[in-house]
Design goal:
17% of the residues lie in helices and 24% in strands. It is α/β, with parallel strands linked by helices.
Length: 230
């Protein structure tokens, strides 16, 4: 009997330990295979908040936050050509600022469960990012929202976003043709600045700015230099 208990305990400890550098998937759902989508939910639910801020500069840094549900401070992806896709299926909230800044190879985002950024959200200088559909559940940005100088960005696709606590800047996105992806946005606590988006109609920019409650000033100018774009 003692031998059987020892074998059972050893087996449990072995499974919990997993392999170095890998996540242990806990198959707690009713699926018949261990790799169903629902299994990810059980892994995320068991993970404690990730305290502090994180600057992600390589794959090892990214692995460190892969299972974070909450990041209590800031999260930054700054200036690199190693990141082509950003997939953080567990992440639900970032307490501070979230920066996606000058990632030359970044083409896609997938943060399906992110609902809240407590600070500002800065998406700037990502030359190959064509849309922001990777934020399907984001409802609130507590600070500023800056979308600037993303050369390939054609649409915003942040359909759930309702509130920006501070300023909204949409500037110098050469291929941006539409603001329809922000149709749920009703409130901006600071000012609104929309300028130098060459493919965006000035009329659409003005109509959008007039449709939301704004706490500060509104500045719309220099859009549509190449409008309409192919």
């Amino acid at each position: 009997m003692r031998f059987q208990l020892f074998v059972l305990l050893f087996g449990v400890l072995f499974v919990m330990a997993g392999c170095p550098g890998t996540a242990v998937l806990l198959d707690n759902d009713d699926a018949t295979t261990p790799d169903e989508d629902d299994d990810t939910d059980s892994v995320c639910a068991t993970n404690a908040p990730c305290n502090g801020g994180f600057v992600i500069q390589n794959e090892n840094d990214l692995d460190e936050i892969a299972l974070c549900v909450t990041i209590t401070s800031g999260l930054s992806f700054l200036t690199g050509d190693w990141l082509s896709s950003l997939d953080l299926p567990c992440l639900e909230s970032v307490g501070g600022n979230l920066y996606l800044y000058f990632n030359a190879a970044l083409t896609s985002l997938d943060l399906p469960n992110l609902t809240t950024v407590g600070g500002g959200l800065n998406i700037a200088g990502n030359d190959n990012l064509s849309n922001l559909a990777g934020f399907p559940g984001l409802t609130t940005v507590g600070g500023f929202l800056t979308i600037d100088d993303n050369a390939a960005l054609t649409s915003l696709d942040m359909y759930s976003l309702t509130t920006v606590g501070d300023d909204l800047h949409i500037t110098s996105n050469a291929a941006l043709t539409s603001l329809d992806g922000l149709f749920s946005l009703t409130s901006v606590g600071g000012g609104v600045d929309i300028h130098d988006n060459a493919c965006l109609s000035e009329v659409q920019a003005e109509t959008f700015a007039a449709s939301i409650s704004v706490g500060g000033g509104v500045s719309v100018w220099g859009n549509g230099a190449n409008y309409p774009c192919p």
